[in-house]
């Protein structure tokens, strides 16, 4: 067992009206192992997701009660520093990441039990999160990380990357080699999905309202392209200039796309469906357009008819289960793929990291080291 102190640094949300609720304590009690199958993780890095920002500012439509003085943040990685006497899967010194939906291990879709244990009480929401130096958790809810990844890399996996992986490979139909994926925006989920699609011999079309972001994204994604990939393997759409981006996606692809990574919600779902071939998949994992202006004609769009006459599959998704998470890590390791990180903050700068994410200028993941 490594040397473990008795007190630690830990953030809580003293209120959820705005980011002033983020409160750092320097004398929180280090948790003890309460079962023989728990491990104690010294958290080394966190990454932020839209959900974290929504919870901290009181706009998350939580399907569960959020406890007072919540320890925030869902996504992180660290090193095992203590193990219970019944632990068989991990040893002190292992680099690991806790699952965000605790208890979601093997089901394609969350069962009621897994949902209630996991998403409905996910880390940093219904139960305390990992903006803390030490975190105790059952070994079944932890995944080992490959050595080539840093803690900062590993901190980006449990939510954004696992959502992207599940979107492409966690449901039916699953992505097949040679297909085309339309990724909306340049956030963590969309860029991870683009990486996974490219290393799986698929084409990607990426959208953004910023030509600068698109140019940078192309450079960051180029290492995922096969050396013999065609010129149209990675294409972009600047929707600040091309408002009918669904038509442009079909033009670029020579027909409707196979998959859409839909993170916009009401403001984009119609065009996402129009972009997709019959039998294709529109995977919804966000609703970021809710926090901006949505034109009235978009609000009044008949989405039911769009789904009916497109014959596309439209479904919500959460994150990968534990088995899928392990598949994702193995696939990344085989291709030496690392998450795309925009900026790294120190633990004492967590509020600054939230504010940076809130400004919406990031591309990829916002990470905090501990």
In angstroms, what separates the terminal alpha carbons? 20 Å
Mean pLDDT over the residues: 93
Oligomeric organization of the protein chains: single chain
Q: Can you count the helices?
A: 12
Helix fraction bin: 25-40%
The radius of gyration computed from the alpha-carbon positions, rounded to a whole number of angstroms, is: 20 Å
SSE string, helices as H and strands as E: EEEHEEHEEHHEHEHEHEHEHHEHEHE
- Structural class, by secondary structure, is alpha/beta
Dominant shape: globular
The largest sheet, given as strand count, sense and whether it forms a barrel, is:
7 strands, mixed
Q: How much strand?
A: 25-35%
Defining traits:
6-stranded parallel β-sheet, globular, 7-stranded mixed β-sheet
